[in-house]
Specification:
The complex is a heterodimer of chains A (about 220) and B (about 375). Chain A has about 220 residues and is an alpha+beta fold. Chain A is about 40% helix and about 15% strand. Chain A has two domains: about 55 residues; about 120 residues, Beta Polymerase, domain 2 (2-Layer Sandwich). Chain B has one domain: Cytochrome-c3 Hydrogenase, chain B (Orthogonal Bundle), CATH 1.10.645.10. Helices cover about 50% and strands about 15% of the residues of chain B. Classes of the chains: A alpha+beta (about 220), B alpha+beta (about 375).
Chain lengths: ~220, ~375
């Protein structure tokens, strides 16, 4: 290769690098703007919820005592800060829903499955949701003996999304967690076989993330 | 000296016994499997991602293509989730029509399973009988909604088309026909010694394992766990009908076989009662707002598909499109136990066990 050719090639790669950097900066700015919008929206929603509180309260749901008992039990057995939030999901036939602090998720999961009063032995579904401000993993549990149901949510950061794996507790979580890792990029420390499951192994990015940009738009 | 090194064998994705494009890599020590690794994704179309840009009516055809052997139940789980969220009421006639097509679909799906399972094991003719009888159901569906497999029949708030005149009579005639054929199936296959030797005691697991792996449908009930969502958490109109939930004891392929055949009988029983109670007149669509926008929040509903618990998790931000849509596909969850079951089995039993789980790859990969 002559010097001239070498120089030309170098110039070309420099231009390529510059374009890449520009593109990355643009993407980053767009992602930040999106996160800011989502945060502002959430704030507005919270304010609206506060306004709604001023109205006369509705009669409590029949599932409220069940939820209160669940929250009290978790707090007593683990820690006061284990529950971040708890509510009855009226849209979903009054499903008791709790948001567990991710630091205590492993202990909480163990307790949910094994405590005599709960016995949530059947994990029916695991979903991951990208809320743009944060990530969430939702576990839908049911006790086959008492037919009681609960939805448990664990929130995690978007940048280094990670939630303790519950595969050692419910074997059914295995492929579900792999699917969430593959499509949403949430890591599950403690998982025995954390690999992509749907997309090819060499795929770049996690398609179900809201800011996903395909590496090759032709594909 | 005989060389005794391990052999790595690739099965699928194009292989007649894997029911679609399912691939599994097995490590063999002679004839015995020491390790099995399923490889998924060959039919992954990103339904959940596509759905985020579609409104709910537009998503219904995509559900047809997930479990294409049982499209009616897939239709139902999506519209049921949206209706639960919006608190919509479905007219009685529409709900009856839905229930009738779902039970017909269960029979059709089990017939496909029965035929292909025996084909896997090496019996050619049952496949032809099963598809002959399934064709009668397909014809009924064709008359009802103009499609043989991908029906796109249900809508949020009801069904798209009322039954054409004389359709109910055809369903009524089908019931005794199918009952007769079931006896024929039993005579032809269920007592066959070679067949029994191939499936009895094969692919066995206990109730605790089944629950731990989240199995559902016949895969769970073959261990004796009494869990059929139609009975345990009744949806639609199932609480109105009398039917039994067939259970197994041993948790092997034979029990799963018996359960699926018995479920056809129970579905016929439900159909008989449904036809008796079918309302004379009435609407097929309820009062649905022009734009279907579920309120902000989320919902998880589940129903009993022929393969087990199919669930739908919708997160809505009050828009016409879902913010996130996730399907809990029974084939995907049930398949997880396969690598565990295969260790120590022979290659012939791989086909028997895989067939016994009853997967549809469109649903595994989604």
């Amino acid at each position: 290769m002559t010097d001239e050719q070498k120089n030309r090639e170098k110039a070309l790669t420099d231009i390529g690098n510059e374009q890449n950097a520009e593109r990355e900066a643009k993407l980053k700015a767009a992602a930040e703007a999106r996160a800011a919008r989502a945060a502002a929206k959430e704030k507005a929603e919270a304010e609206a919820a506060e306004a709604a509180l001023a109205e006369p309260p509705k009669p409590p749901s029949p599932k409220q005592p069940e939820l209160d008992a669940l929250v009290a039990l978790l707090k007593e057995q683990i820690n006061d800060s284990v529950i971040e939030d708890a509510y009855v999901n009226e849209l979903n036939s009054d499903m008791p829903t709790i948001i567990v602090n991710h630091t205590y998720w492993r202990e909480a999961a163990q307790l949910l499955k094994e405590h005599e009063g709960l016995q949530f032995n059947y994990l029916r579904n695991v979903s991951g949701v990208d809320y743009e401000t944060h990530m969430e993993v939702v576990y839908h549990l049911v006790s086959l003996a008492s037919k009681r149901e609960a939805a448990v949510k664990v929130k995690t950061d978007r940048k280094e999304a990670a939630v303790y794996s519950v595969t050692p507790i419910w074997a059914t979580a295995n492929w579900n967690e792999r699917e969430i890792y593959d499509l949403l990029g949430i890591n599950f420390p403690g998982h025995p076989d954390m690999r992509r499951i749907m997309m090819p192994d060499e795929w770049v990015g996690h398609p179900l993330r809201k800011d996903y940009e395909p590496l090759d738009s032709e594909v | 000296m005989i060389r005794t090194e391990e052999l790595l064998l690739n099965v699928g994705p194009q292989h007649p016994s894997t029911h679609g494009v399912f691939r599994i890599i097995v490590k063999l020590d002679g004839e015995v499997i020491t390790e099995a690794t399923p490889v998924m994704g060959y039919l992954h179309r990103g339904t959940e991602k596509i759905a985020e840009n579609l409104n709910f009516t537009q998503i219904i055809p995509y559900t047809d293509r997930m479990d294409y052997v049982s499209a009616m139940t897939n239709n139902y789980v999506l519209v049921h989730a949206v209706e639960t969220m919006m608190g919509l009421e479905v007219p009685l006639r529409a709900e009856f029509l839905r229930l009738i097509v779902m039970e017909l679909q269960r029979i059709a799906s089990h017939l496909v399973w029965w035929g292909t399972y025996l084909l896997d094991i090496g019996a050619m003719s049952p496949f032809l009988y099963a598809f002959r009888d399934r064709e009668m159901i397909i014809d009924l569906f064709n008359e009802l909604c103009g499609a043989r497999l991908t029906y796109n029949y249900m809508r949020v708030g009801g069904v798209k088309w009322d039954a054409p005149p004389g359709w109910m009579d055809k369903v009524r005639d089908f019931i005794p026909y199918m009952e007769g054929k079931l006896q024929e199936y039993d005579k032809l296959v269920s007592g066959n010694e070679i067949f029994l030797a191939r499936i009895k005691g094969v692919g066995q697991y206990d109730a605790a394992t089944a629950i731990d792996y989240g199995l559902s449908g016949a895969n769970l009930r073959c261990t004796g766990v009494d869990w059929d969502i139609r009975k345990a958490e009744p949806y639609s109109l199932y609480s109105r009908f009398e039917f039994d939930v067939p259970l197994g004891k041993n948790g092997d392929c034979y029990d799963r076989y018996r359960i699926r055949l018995e479920e056809i009988r129970q579905s016929l029983r439900i159909l008989k009662q449904a036809l008796q109670q079918f309302p004379e007149g009435g609407e097929t669509m309820g009062k649905v707002p022009r734009a279907i926008r579920p309120p902000v929040g989320e919902v998880y509903v589940r129903i009993e598909s022929p393969r087990g618990e199919i669930g739908c998790h919708i997160v809505s931000k009050g828009k016409a499109e879902p913010y996130r849509l996730k399907f809990r596909r029974p084939s995907f969850v049930n398949l997880q136990i396969l690598p565990k079951l295969l260790v120590g089995e022979t290659m012939t039993n791989l086909i028997t066990i895989l067939g016994g789980i009853d997967i549809v790859v469109g649903e595994v990969d989604c």
